[in-house]
Design a protein that fits this description.
By secondary structure, the chain is an all-alpha fold. 86% of the residues lie in helices and 0% in strands. It contains 4 helices and no strands.
Length: 129
């Protein structure tokens, strides 16, 4: 009699990790208005990219910029949750941790804006002239 295959605990934990990560993305989008704004901006960038027929390299840059902003937003939210748990009362270091994390999102957004301008402005100028 041949034994039946039983998934290893490691493969089960990987699946659970993916479910937990998906839950985290859901929590990010459910609780953070800025994350939803970033997703809407990403959809607008994708639509404009299709309209302007950007190249594969340009798509790569746009996707990386979008990913950078969304990852920064996720890490910012995780830091906010952890700080709120560790320091429910106001504390200068808690404020600083949150401000630095939010600053990272701002920097990522500025970089993404720069990428978007570098990719889209020349193509828009070509269409207008």
């Amino acid at each position: 009699m041949k034994p039946t295959a039983v998934p290893s605990p490691r493969s089960v934990s990987r699946l659970a990790s993916i479910r937990n990560a998906a839950r985290g993305v859901g929590r990010l989008l459910a609780t953070q208005t800025n994350a939803r704004i970033h997703v809407c901006a990403a959809m607008a960038v994708a639509a404009i990219g299709c309209w302007l027929e950007v190249s594969l390299i340009e798509w790569s840059l746009l996707i990386l910029a979008i990913g950078l902003v969304l990852c920064a937003e996720g890490l910012n939210t995780a830091i906010e949750f952890a700080v709120d748990l560790a320091s429910p009362q106001w504390h200068e270091l808690a404020r600083d941790a949150k401000d630095v994390a939010a600053g990272a999102v701002l920097l990522a957004s500025i970089v993404a804006l720069g990428v978007g301008l570098a990719v889209f402005v020349p193509k828009l100028l070509d269409r207008l002239w």
